[in-house]
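I hope you will forgive my troubling you with a question about protein structure. I am sending you one protein, given as its amino acid sequence and as whole-number tokens for its backbone shapes. Thank you for your consideration; the sequence and its tokens are set out here:
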Amino acid sequence: ARRITTLRAISYILFQLIGGLTGAALARSVSIKMFRSVHGGANAVAPGISSGSAFWIELLGTLFLVMAVLAASDTDRNARWPHRSALVPLEVALTIFLLHVVLIPFTGCSINPARSFGTAVVGHYWRLHWIWWVAPLVGGLVAALLYSIMFFFNESPKEELTREGVLERGGLGGIFGKGRGEQQAGTTGRTVVTTSG
């Protein structure tokens, strides 16, 4: 959704992977026997569910999660209804809870490659591991594109102030055409850098 810089995105990915590994290692330290009996809690496709079905289940689950996060943390909407910002954690938590209730019987509910990576490494269980990476990444990408198209196609791109104090701009309005944000940028007197990535 281009709400953060590339460097921050890479940092989130790296530290989530480290967090997944650390969490799985801590779980293993509680009871190695129990940990091994469930392959470390690694995601697995339930009997009777094909790998293709598992892929689509995880893709749609991640799509719903990312759409919910984008909607809950949308600064434009929170500016119009200031009280909404206090509900962001609850909205996201309820979405994650509901997805786990629905998806656990089918795939163990990954919806995050870092969660699956940690348990696969520590539990040494890699069966159909590609699903837990490809499906969430595709689902997240589709969700970001859909949200941007539905709500921000003709509006100003999202902005973030970098460490150097230069304003970066993102969003599909800046990608697919001259949106309102570009018109506004010329009238504010600020120096704006348009990112291509």
Summary: The radius of gyration is 20 Å. The first strand starts at residue 159 and ends at 161. DSSP finds nine helices and three strands in the chain. The chain has a mean pLDDT of 81.
